[in-house]
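INTERNAL TRANSFER SHEET
From: sequence group
To: structure group
Subject: DUF1428 family protein

Please process the attached sequence and return the structure record in the designated field. Keep the field labels unchanged so the import script can parse them.
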Amino acid sequence: MPYVDGFVLAVPKDRLEDYKAMARLGGEVWMGHGALSYVECIADDVPYGELTSFPRAVQATEDEVVVFSWVTYASRQARDEIMAKVMADERLKDYMQNMPFDGKRMIFGGFEAFVQHGS
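Return from structure group:
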């Protein structure tokens, strides 16, 4: 079963094109270093819940859009090795220094898959 890194974040609408450019490059970098898949999604149907929701989790404001993304790897060990290479990759340096979103409100974590249907 694959290992998955998941991310939820809020991107200012006026920086969305910057984020998309970063995401496209990120996909190339992650896949180039051995990730199995790389997916970035813009919220389309994510209501603001009374207690919990994606927008609430990242404290999204009216001028922000929620992004949900994930990267899959063959294993936790592969993820750790790939992530070290990604973090050292010079192609991401400019984005790491000037991210088009508030990294303090990003939710992220690694998950061990236990059920998978489809590819």
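Handover comment: The chain is about 35% helix and 25% strand. The mean pLDDT is 96.
Transfer complete.
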